[in-house]
Amino acid sequence: MLDKDLEVCRTHLKSAVLGFRLGMEGQANEDFVAFLDAFARVCQQYPPHRIVQLNAVLEKIFQAQSRKDYLYLADLLEYGELVPAPLDPVVRMGDYH
Questions:
Q1: Burial of residue 29, with CB atoms counted within 10 A of its CB: 0-12 exposed, 13-18 middle, 19 or more buried
Q2: Could you give the CA distance from residue 20 to residue 68 in angstroms, rounded to a whole number?
Q3: What is the pLDDT of residues 33-64, one digit of tens each?
Q4: Secondary structure of 36-96 as H, E, C letters
Q5: Angle (CA) 63 88 96, round 5°
Q6: pTM of the predicted structure, to 2 decimals
Q7: Summary mean pLDDT of the chain
Q8: At what angle do helices 70-79 and 2-21 cross, to 10 degrees?
Q9: Distance (Å, rounded) from C-alpha 96 to C-alpha 91?
Q10: How far apart are CA 31 and CA 7, in angstroms?
Q11: Where do the structural domains in the chain lie, given as residue ranges?
């Protein structure tokens, strides 16, 4: 189930980033909400130290969204390392279980 949720996260994350960059805030926000739904399930598998790291990034993301700073929001989503890469060795070793 974790692999499926990670893939859903990646898909909606990419779509949200593209939408925010192209000025398509409505569609981007829909993808962002879908990402957050899947991300909440993924986070249940993260160890506590990873949750602490993510909180700082998530705070910046929500601040950017509240300011409607969509380009910065897109940068944070793309480069904020919320979702591990598909071949991230940490995921393969089970650090997120």
A1: middle
A2: 10
A3: 999 999 898 888 888 888 888 888 899 999 99
A4: HHHHHHHHCCCCHHHHHHHHHHHHHHHHHHHHCCHHHHHHHHHHCCCCCCCCCHHHHCCCC
A5: 70
A6: 0.78
A7: 83
A8: 150
A9: 6
A10: 13
A11: 2-85
